[in-house]
Specification:
The chain is α+β, with helices and mostly antiparallel strands and 191 residues long. It has helices at residues 2-18, 25-32, 87-98, 103-116, 157-160, and strands spanning 45-49, 55-59, 65-68, 77-83, 125-134, 141-151, 173-175, 183-186. The chain has one domain. Helix 1 (2-18) runs antiparallel to helix 2 (25-32) and helix 3 (87-98) crosses helix 4 (103-116).
């Protein structure tokens, strides 16, 4: 973690000298992998942000995971990792957002594209989302919390046996049932 602190301090120096809002590449690379399972991190592809806030590939990986560094234009620290079979879906969402579509419009557009077969959606794949707090003194990311999203397009409560809301803290439930974006949510209880 001392290495991460050094990277963050370097980022702070760079930020204060240039006014740049985007974290440097080293910081994005070292923190962008935090959502991926530990044994998948070293070989994962890592997407980050350039100086104009566009998503770019920071590191081309050799395994099945794609990680996305924290988006500096959004409040709080949040990184994600997902199986590469979700990339067409994720990439399409980013393109539609860049075109100015709101969340409902993006949902509706992808729903139509998946239903007609012009957008590939895997029959199942997992997205990991990790949030945390950056300690301004040490530069370390603390209070890491990961939630899990398991995409299973068009699944319903009836086809999975999963409820539509969590029946207990940390229990799985299904969100967006019956749509291209149906997914099982698992939000472990926070410490």
């Amino acid at each position: 973690m001392k290495n991460l602190a050094s990277i963050y301090v370097l980022f702070l120096l760079l930020f204060s000298c240039t006014g740049q809002e985007i974290p440097n590449e080293s910081f994005q690379l070292s923190t962008g992998i935090l959502a991926a399972p530990e044994h998948q991190r070293a070989e994962a592809t890592i997407l980050g942000f350039d100086s104009s806030s566009k998503i770019i590939t920071l590191k081309e990986g050799t395994n099945d995971f794609i990680c996305i560094a924290d988006n500096p234009s959004k409040e709080g620290f949040s990184v994600a990792a997902y199986h590469k079979s979700l990339e067409p879906f994720m990439s399409r969402g980013r393109v539609l957002k860049e075109q100015g579509l709101n969340a409902k419009e993006v949902f509706d557009k992808r729903e139509k594209e998946v239903s007609v077969g012009s957008l590939e959606m895997p029959d199942r794949a997992t997205l990991y989302v990790t949030t945390g707090d950056i300690n301004e003194e040490t530069g370390e990311v603390e209070n890491l919390y990961t939630r899990y999203v398991i995409y299973i397009p068009y699944a319903t409560e009836e086809s999975t046996g999963m409820p539509l809301s969590p029946p207990a803290p940390g229990a799985p439930w299904i969100m967006d049932p019956g749509t291209h974006r149906a997914h099982i949510m698992i939000n472990p209880p926070k410490d």
